[in-house]
Every structure is written in structure tokens, then in C-alpha cells.
Design goal:
384 residues; nine-stranded mixed sheet; 6 helices; 43% strand
Length: 384
């Protein structure tokens, strides 16, 4: 990134609304100043790709992915390589160099406006064909409701493939947005995904993340509850094999009274895979009557797999309910023995136990059609 000159950046700027060109310029200057994110947590936890240097990221080429979107009455969708004027209400935050790089060089955009209640889910089928920096922006009118499913996959890609994805949601008062994402990209892809939601009064944003592919994924999902009575549910499921790496951060920020959040992270790691789950529930001083919960669980299938869970609570008001829990363990051999006694091989027994480990999370999804889709994806992954 440091090698990118002002001249190269200015040549990259597209024919976009003036406000977004200015946003890119601010992001580019911030990128030069901000530090690279830390990949080390404490003395013994290091989660980073083995043979990829983020500092060498250059100017991306034009995105050339295949995107199919099911359109529904009551939802306005814009797709393109430049930012439409309709997205002006969003603001970016630059916590580190990678986030600023994303805004400065984003090359693919999807903007969704939810105008009323839509019963049938909107499906976005995304076939990644090369390095991409994509932004999805979602807004909802007051009291509107919608479910959005993002299915991201790819065929074999070169080891230098970099995918950066931002999803920004602004939920209007009384609205409800359920966002479901299944990521099964090529094992050569280095993936950085960042999700942020803002919930107004009595609004709800529910996230369901199913993370299966890539050699390395750095994922952050955070929801800011800024209106009284706002709520969020954050479900994150990951499954790792070989030498996959997962660095996961989930957060709920209670900035208003009577807000509710629930974070559940559940993963299974096999062979030499490695995962870190960090969670945060932060309740502000003026957020009386709020309720926050987080749970992190990881199941290890190999003595070479590694997992760490770091829950965190920050509470500035005594009139709240807030709790957390975390577990890291291995499969109970008695369960395997029982299933083998019923005619299953050891491999089949492990597959059934892993499937059962994930199913309680899938059942938390409110829509039966979505539950069936998630069950199908997880079943295929576990059977591999």
C-alpha cells in the first residue's frame, strides 16, 4: 500500500458523485497514516496468513465477478463498479490501514433500499473470479422488513487473490433486517470482511454468518443499537480444515435504553486449522434496562488444531443484564463409541456429532427456508 503514489491514486478515481470521490481521497490519506491491524493477541496468539503480505496490496484491477440477484417488489437494487448517489447517507470509519484501503479502492458496489415489508428473501449469488473490493449498503424505511441471503463462492483461484468486503446496514425505526451470509471461497483466497449495522428506535438487525472457505478470514461483525428498544442477534458459524485460519470479532454496542443483543459464535476445527473468536458487549451509561449476552464455543477434532476464545464485557450502567461464556473442547469419545455401536463408522459418527453441534445455531434462524439452505450447506461441508 505504501508504494501507491498520489498520481496513481488520482488516476484510479472514477466518475462518481463528488461526495464519494472526496470520501475516497480522505480514506487514501488516512491509509497512509494508520497502522496495519494487529494479527497478534497477547504473547501466544498469532492469526495471520502464512504467505501473504498485506503491505504489498496495490491498486486493484476492475472487478469481473458474476452476480445474480433475485429482485422483489418493494426493494430497490443498484449494482455497479461506481458508487450511486443514493448511498450518500453512509459514513465510513477507519480503524486501521486495511479499512481505509477498502474505501479508497473499492471497485464493486451493491446498494439495496428496502421500501416496505418483503416476505420472500432476496438472494445474492456471488461468483468471485478475482481479487475484489466490494461494498454492500443496505437501508430500510421505517417499519419495513426483509431477509437478504448472500451466497459467496468461487472456483479455484490463484494464491494471491484478495477479497475485501464491507456490508453496511442502516435500519430505520421499527424495521427488521435479517442478513444471512454463506462464504465458501477457494482455499487460496485471503479474505477480510467487515459488517456494521446501525439500529434506530425499535429496529432489529440479525446476522447469520456461515464461514467455510478461504485460507485466511479476518471477520468483524458489529451492531450499534442507537435507538431505544433496538435489538440484534449475531450468529457466527465456522468450519476449518487443513491450515485454514479464522480471526473473528463480534460486537454489540448498546447506546440507548432497553436494547437487546445476543451473540453466539460456534466453530469446528480439524487437522492444522486455527481459530480465534473475540467478542464484545458494551453497554453505555445511558443504556439502562439493556440486556446483552455472548457465547463462544469451539470443537477441536485434531490434536494439531488450535482455538482461542476471548469474551469481553464493558458495562457502564448497573441497571442492566449482561453475561458471557466460552468453551473449547474435543469430541466425547463415549458419543463416538455409542454411534459406532449403532452401525456407523468412526468417520460417520464424527460427521453426525459435528452436524448436531451446528444445528442448534441453525435452528435460531427465524425462517424455515433459510434454515434448510444452511443445513444443506453445512451437511455438504461436514461430509467432505
Amino acid at each position: 500500500m505504501e508504494q501507491i503514489t498520489e498520481k496513481q491514486f488520482n488516476a484510479y478515481l472514477k466518475e462518481e458523485p463528488t461526495w464519494y470521490r472526496s470520501l475516497r481521497q480522505v480514506a487514501f490519506q488516512r491509509m497512509k497514516q494508520l497502522p496495519m491491524p494487529s494479527f497478534r493477541y497477547g504473547l501466544s496468539i498469532l492469526i495471520k496468513p502464512e504467505s501473504f503480505d498485506f503491505a504489498n496490496l496495490g491498486i486493484p484491477s476492475r472487478a469481473d465477478n458474476n452476480i445474480l440477484i433475485s429482485k422483489q417488489d418493494g426493494i430497490e437494487i443498484a449494482v455497479g463498479s461506481t458508487m450511486p448517489e443514493t448511498a450518500k447517507s453512509f459514513e465510513e470509519e477507519y480503524e486501521d490501514k486495511l479499512l481505509a484501503y477498502h474505501t479508497a479502492f473499492a471497485n464493486e458496489f451493491i446498494v439495496i433500499k428496502i421500501q416496505k415489508t418483503v416476505k420472500k428473501p432476496v438472494e445474492i449469488k456471488y461468483d468471485l473470479r478475482g481479487s475484489t473490493i466490494s461494498t454492500i449498503m443496505i437501508t430500510s424505511e421505517p417499519n419495513a422488513k426483509a431477509k437478504i441471503i448472500l451466497m459467496k463462492s468461487s472456483k479455484s483461484l490463484p494464491s494471491s487473490t484478495f477479497n475485501s468486503e464491507h456490508i453496511l446496514i442502516n435500519a430505520g425505526a421499527g424495521s427488521s433486517i435479517e442478513f444471512i451470509s454463506t462464504q465458501n471461497l477457494s482455499r487460496n483466497v485471503v479474505n477480510v470482511q467487515h459488517r456494521t449495522a446501525i439500529c434506530q428506535k425499535d429496529a432489529t438487525v440479525n446476522w447469520t454468518e456461515l464461514c467455510l472457505g478461504t485460507i485466511y478470514t479476518r471477520a468483524a461483525v458489529s451492531t450499534r443499537l442507537v435507538g431505544q428498544g433496538a435489538s440484534t442477534k449475531n450468529l457466527f458459524v465456522f468450519h476449518g480444515t487443513d491450515k485454514q485460519r479464522f480471526d473473528i470479532f463480534t460486537a454489540s454496542y448498546h447506546d440507548a435504553p432497553d436494547t437487546l443483543s445476543n451473540i453466539i459464535t460456534r466453530g469446528v476445527l480439524n487437522q492444522e486449522s486455527k481459530g480465534l473468536s473475540r467478542g464484545l458487549v458494551k453497554i453505555a451509561q445511558n443504556a439502562a434496562g439493556s440486556n446483552g449476552y455472548e457465547q463462544q464455543d469451539v470443537l477441536l477434532l485434531s490434536e494439531h488444531a488450535e482455538a482461542d476464545a476471548i469474551p469481553n464485557l464493558e458495562i457502564d450502567n448497573n441497571d442492566v443484564k449482561c453475561s458471557h461464556g466460552s468453551t473449547v473442547g474435543q469430541i466425547d469419545e463415549e458419543k463416538i463409541f455409542y454411534l459406532q455401536s449403532r452401525g456407523l463408522s468412526r468417520e460417520q459418527a464424527v460427521q453426525q456429532i459435528v452436524l448436531g453441534y451446528f444445528m442448534p445455531i441453525v435452528e435460531l434462524c427465524s425462517d424455515q427456508e433459510i434454515r434448510e439452505k444452511l443445513y444443506e450447506v453445512i451437511s455438504k461441508e461436514v461430509a467432505c
